[in-house]
Amino acid sequence: MAEHTVTEHRWEPIEADLTPWAGQKVRLKLISDVGPADNSVGDWACWADMRLESLQERLVWVLEDNAEAYRRSPGPFPVPGITVEELRNARRGWLHYDGMGLSGGTGQYGSYGVLNGVEIGPMAEAGGDELRGVWAENVTMELPPEAIKTLGYRNVFVLRNEADWFKVRRFWIELELADGRKCSSLISEAAWTQPPGWPYAEGIKVPFGQYITVDIWFKP
User: What is the predicted pLDDT for the residue at 30?
Assistant: First the structure.
């Protein structure tokens, strides 16, 4: 169904077309071997974050009582006609956002970012100044290569937080394409607060036990 050569011990995406088995019950197996170099040092494998996706895009109608999450503005580096292949072959990438009260890091109030099911690491601090209403603007986190390889026109960012009190807004992705050009997604303008009872809350309020989830779109 699918074959992929992995030369280093790291997570990499793999996908297979299940069209020939449409409507049937199937069992998927992951098989590893020594590879073309006949190297048995790392002939093991595991998989995670498995999901099923339709082969073709499908229009989905959603009735939403809060349209704030869908408010977007143009990014600073639009590339008309950008393809998914170009996105996934980018040399480097960064997540941008504004924040207020976000501790970041890995401590007691640490939080983590996940892009398209791939962990991208602890959130970068975005403290700002709650008392003066000042945001920390354009905070950046570099994306690992395995996250870049999952990029598409629609991307889902999840902020995993268990204990911190903060708000964030204006999420977007910047890429350095293979040919050296800069490319940016649309900017997701909505503000998100966790938890709802924070005195400086605004925008979409997310209780503890749930994760802030943001759609980040590239315009083809």
Answer: 85
